């Protein structure tokens, strides 16, 4: 498996953009998967009273983790675009808890990458969301 | 249309209500550097966030008391389709409440940039409805 794409290098070299705005952190990665974390932030809640995170930041976490998983499996940082994403929100995350998102690129064709993933807030056996999605692979230069 | 107050996450993205059409709020997410992805376009997650907020705002607009909406409507799932890459410029979104039943609400949201006929993304969102506890 190609190891030319290192998500930790890309994350730490990012000087701005949505990933930095959300404060996404690298947790771990393998040949075809990537795990990132989103720390709890009161600016990201859906309701100031409940303090529950909005669903949108979970989408951004999972889209980013899945995009990284595709780059890892492709072995390089090349242009790609999200074609579709589906998230099932199994339960609200606990206020104050960081959210960990793990996504896997389980199938790569010449044009399309298929991804799936899970988000949890501490216990991987008790997930808060499931992801399914596809990415379009574009030209080789990003 | 009742007054729609957006969630804190909407403020984080810089989203504002800029008008209404047929009783549904029209939202804008002004371009900012914090919305971009690593390839220089708009991050798909930020566009998804805008679509979800448009869906929630459309539901809130159907209620007399939008403040209660977060306690009543819980997202079950969202499916986002991306038609065009988001360019580094403002994004607009609005949603249509397809149905509010006894237990479930179905909403469709669309996002565009310069031309409302050229959508960059759409989303379908299903939400569970739980009645607020009477005090």
Task: Give a short summary of the structure.
Chain A has helices at residues 7-13, 18-22, 55-74; strands at 25-29, 33-38, 80-89, 99-108, 112-120, 129-137. By secondary structure, chain A is an alpha+beta fold.
Count of β-strands of chain B: 6
State the secondary-structure class of chain A.
Answer: alpha+beta
Helix content of chain A: 10-25%
Straight-line N-to-C gap of chain B:
26 Å
Under CATH, the homologous superfamily of chain A reads Hotdog Thioesterase
Shape of chain A: globular
What quaternary form is this? Answer: heterodimer
CATH architecture of chain A: Roll
Q: Beta fraction of the residues of chain A?
A: 25-35%
Helix content of chain B: 10-25%
CATH architecture of chain B: Roll
Q: For the largest sheet of chain A, list the strands in their spatial order.
A: 1-2-4-5-6-3
Gyration radius of chain B (Cα, Å) is: 15 Å
Order of helices and strands of chain A: HHEEHEEEE
Mean pLDDT of chain A, as a whole number? 93
The unreliable regions of chain A are none
CATH class of chain A: Alpha Beta
Major interchain interface with per-chain residue totals = A-B, 42 and 33 residues
Mean pLDDT of chain B: 90
């Amino acid at each position: 498996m190609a190891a030319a794409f290192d998500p930790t290098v890309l994350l730490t070299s990012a000087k701005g953009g949505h990933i930095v705005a959300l404060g996404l952190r690298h947790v771990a990665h393998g040949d075809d998967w990537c795990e990132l974390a989103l720390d709890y932030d009161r600016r990201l809640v859906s309701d100031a009273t409940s303090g529950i995170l909005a669903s949108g930041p979970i989408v951004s976490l999972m889209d980013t983790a899945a995009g990284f998983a595709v780059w890892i499996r492709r072995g390089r940082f090349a242009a790609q675009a999200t074609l579709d994403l589906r998230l099932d929100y199994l339960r609200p995350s606990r206020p104050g808890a960081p959210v960990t998102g793990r996504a896997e690129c389980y199938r790569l064709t010449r044009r399309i990458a298929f991804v799936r993933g899970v988000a949890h807030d501490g216990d991987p056996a008790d997930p808060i969301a499931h992801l399914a999605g596809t990415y379009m692979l574009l030209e080789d230069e990003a | 249309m009742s007054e729609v107050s957006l969630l804190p996450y909407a403020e984080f993205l810089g989203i504002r209500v800029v008008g209404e059409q047929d009783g549904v709020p029209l939202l804008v997410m002004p371009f900012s550097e914090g919305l971009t992805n690593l390839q220089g376009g708009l991050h798909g997650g930020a566009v998804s966030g805008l679509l979800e907020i448009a869906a929630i705002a459309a539901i809130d607009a159907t209620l007399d008391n939008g403040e209660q909406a977060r306690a009543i409507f819980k997202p079950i799932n969202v499916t986002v389709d991306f038609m065009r890459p988001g360019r580094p410029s403002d994004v607009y979104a609005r949603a249509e409440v397809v149905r509010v039943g006894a237990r479930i609400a179905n909403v469709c949201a669309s996002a565009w940039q310069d031309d409302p006929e050229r959508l960059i993304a759409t989303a379908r969102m299903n939400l569970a409805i739980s009645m607020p506890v009477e005090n």
